[in-house]
Amino acid sequence: MAKLRYFGQYTESALAIKGTDVSGGKTIMDSTIGGILAARTIPPWLPRDAQDARMFSYWAQIMFLIMALVWFIIGIAEIVLGLDNGSIGTVAMGFVGLIISVVCGLAGIFLKRSVIDDIDHGRFHDAKNACIVWGVIGIVAFILPTILLLLSYMKLSDVMKPATSPYAPYAPGTPQAQQYPAQPPQQPPAGPQQPIPPAAQPPAYQHGKEQKYEMLKCKNCGVQFPAFMANCPNCGAPKE
């Protein structure tokens, strides 16, 4: 029975990491309209910088879809005005606006699959590279998605940055103080033993509160991931 209970807890934790609602059977990625628009819910196991990167990417997708609608309206208006005035150049500009509208719409759809979903699954390196591609395309969407994706790129770079020691090593030739063996601490004379107070019990888990996961840092790429995962989700290195 203990093994079955442990297996059930592990399965629920794994489903929560993948974005699955155990009670409803819906995933975070599929909880929106046809899986096209990314969910606003952020997986709780993501590091702080990764959560910020996902938030910027989410708003970049929203801006792409809004700009697609704006360019569609501009294109239709240009075509109608061109046909009314008999101006071929205005009609051509209207078709250009429709093409840009299609580009912005496709960028908004594939941004979710190549950036937001990769962040949700811990593939920070792939998401970082995709930010560059969609950031360039975001120039036709009045540069707003480009700014947001640039911020997301910077946050993902901070996530993948290896942890460094806060103390700088000694420069070559720097004299160092002579080290002496540590003296054992002197024990005070034994006195009457005091009763040991009972240890405070940890608060029981309450339903509805956010569950905290113990995080580990990969020694290969420096990415943080939950302790129950066997391998690093970014580079695949086994945890030690």
Give a brief rundown of this model.
49% of the residues lie in helices and 2% in strands. The chain is mainly α and 240 residues long.
Any overview of this molecule?
It is a single chain. Helices cover 49% and strands 2% of the residues. It has a two-stranded antiparallel ribbon. The protein has a domain at 46-162 and 214-230. The protein is mostly helical and 240 residues long. Helix 2 (48-85) packs antiparallel against helix 5, helix 3 runs antiparallel to helix 4 and helix 4 (124-137) packs antiparallel against helix 5 (144-160). The two termini are 29 Å apart.
What share of the residues lie within helices?
40-55%
Q: Note the total helix count.
A: 5
Oligomeric state of shown chains: single chain
Structural class: mainly alpha
The shape is rod-shaped
What is the N-to-C succession of helices and strands?
HHHHHEE
Cα distance, first to last residue?
29 Å
Main sheet summary: 2 strands, antiparallel
The strands making up the biggest β-sheet line up spatially as 1-2
The average pLDDT value, as a whole number, equals: 77
The stretches of 5 or more residues where confidence is low (pLDDT under 50) are 1-31, 204-209
Strand fraction band? under 5%
Query: What's the alpha carbon Rg, rounded to whole Å?
Result: 27 Å
What keywords describe this structure?
240 residues, mainly alpha, two-stranded antiparallel sheet, 5 helices, 49% helix, 2% strand, rod-shaped, disordered N terminus
Draw up the topology in text.
Elements: H1 2-17, H2 48-85, H3 88-120, H4 124-137, H5 144-160, E1 215-217, E2 224-226
Antiparallel strand pairs: 1-2
